[in-house]
Design a protein that fits this description.
The chain is mainly alpha-helical. The chain folds into two domains: 179 residues, Growth Hormone, Chain: A, CATH 1.20.1250; 200 residues, MFS general substrate transporter like domains (Growth Hormone, Chain: A). It is 82% helix and 0% strand. The chain is built from 16 helices and no strands. α1 crosses α7, α9 runs parallel beside α14 and α13 runs antiparallel to α14. The radius of gyration is 21 Å and the shape is globular. It is a multi-pass membrane protein. This is MFS transporter. Keywords: Cell membrane, Membrane, Transmembrane, Transmembrane helix, Transport. GO terms for molecular function: transmembrane transporter activity.
Length: 399
């Protein structure tokens, strides 16, 4: 299968599910809260449904992808995002809004595992790392689009969500036409019992690293915009611009696949972990300064996509016989970490303020650097030896 035929619709699907259906909510929440007369506590409870839905659907998607193949789950993810966005756009009350949030948030959990499986099934092995990381970078494109939507249509959140729903429908049709239909093929099914992580070498490190990175990045996703708004004198478009910077620079994070191929997975992981956690510390140093704020947003956007791409490749290498599980495990633990991180971040901010809280979380993220993947020296030596043997045999045959 051609690289672009799978990757381009994949990037678009990740953009509408993660960027528009999930991350756009925080930018448009003030308008929704005012229109629907929601208190802060109600808004917080509704927002938390994104995480709840994600944690449930990523487990469901992993199981169903393993049994049925990726095609049906990719279509289900797009349909869930479309219906969720449409319900949010036309919601008459908080209850319908909550249902829309559940469907929109659930689409992100549904979409990640099947795309990992699709790449492993229909893409050549030497292109799989780059394909997975570029598809993953679609999140940043969606975030940038949601930021632009907040600037252009911030006064009409219902129209914004209707436009998002229409874009999602177009992407759904594109994926339906582009993704091969799941046939009754043995390579679309995995061995029974491969859904367990028990006894899998490297699984414990992957789980801990994902959890720490989720905890450390949570305050930036949840409170960074509020932090700079409280600390500085920013206009509305500058605050939305902060979000757009996260999205635009996130596109650069797609190069993680190429860096993994050249520098190795351990090096890429350490680099990504160091820089993603430094973004919180940089923001804490001078949140009132536009340049510093935008610099931290650029670093965070780029290296959040970068490090999730690294976790994705690492997970697939750990669970080599089940690519969907290899994506589900790190992404689920990343989300669980973000739930934990958000809960404690709110308490830290109330007790000590934004600056100490962001610095603390930055240093918590530094711990993840020491739990990374190990260099496969023996495997590399064997591969090199096999290449030399094949080259020698070929030379002898020619002569």
């Amino acid at each position: 299968m051609r690289f672009s035929k799978l990757v381009l619709p994949g990037v678009a699907m990740i953009a509408v599910t993660y960027g528009l259906a999930r991350f756009s909510f925080g930018l448009l929440l003030p308008g929704m809260s005012e229109s629907l007369d929601m208190s802060e506590s109600v808004s917080g409870m509704v927002s938390s449904l994104f995480y709840v839905a994600y944690c449930f659907t990523i487990v469901l998607s992993t199981v169903m992808t393993t049994r049925e193949g990726p095609g049906k789950m990719i279509f289900s993810a797009g349909l869930s995002a479309f219906v969720g966005l449409l319900l949010i756009a036309i919601t008459p009350n908080v209850w319908v809004l909550a249902l829309g949030v559940l469907l929109a948030g659930g689409s992100t959990g549904l979409v990640s595992p099947p795309y990992g499986a699709a790449v492993s099934l229909w893409m050549k092995e030497d292109k799989q790392g780059r394909a997975n990381t570029w598809i993953n970078s679609g999140t940043s494109i969606g975030i940038a689009l949601s930021g632009a939507g907040a600037i252009l249509l911030s006064t009409n959140w219902r129209l914004t969500y209707l436009i998002y729903a229409f874009l999602t429908f177009l992407v759904l049709v594109w994926n339906f036409r582009a993704i091969p239909k799941d046939g009754v093929r043995s390579d679309l099914r995995f061995e029974k019992g491969k859904l367990s992580i028990r006894g899998v070498k490297g699984a414990a490190s992957l789980v801990l690293a994902s959890l720490f990175l989720g905890i450390s990045t949570a305050p930036f996703w949840t409170f960074s915009r509020t932090f700079i708004e409280v600390a500085g004198d920013y206009s509305g478009w500058q605050l939305s611009g902060f979000w757009i910077i996260i999205g635009l620079f996130g596109v650069l994070g797609g190069f993680s696949g190429s860096l993994i191929e050249k520098g190795g997975l351990p090096f890429a992981y350490k680099l990504g972990s160091l820089l993603i956690t430094s973004a919180s510390i940089i923001l804490a140093l001078a949140p009132e300064n536009l340049f510093v704020s935008y610099l931290s947003a650029a670093i965070f956007g780029c290296f959040y996509i970068f490090i999730t791409g690294v976790l994705l490749v690492w997970g697939i290498r750990v669970f080599i016989t089940n690519a969907s599980l290899g994506i589900a495990v790190p992404f689920l633990l990343l989300a669980v970490g973000q739930v934990i991180g958000s809960l404690f971040a709110g308490w830290f901010i109330e007790a000590w303020g934004y600056t100490p809280a962001f610095i603390i979380y930055g240093f918590v993220g530094m711990l993840a650097i020491f739990i990374g993947p190990k260099r496969r020296r023996k495997r590399a030596f064997i591969d090199l030896w096999n290449k030399r043997v094949k080259k020698t045999r070929k030379t002898k045959f020619i002569h």
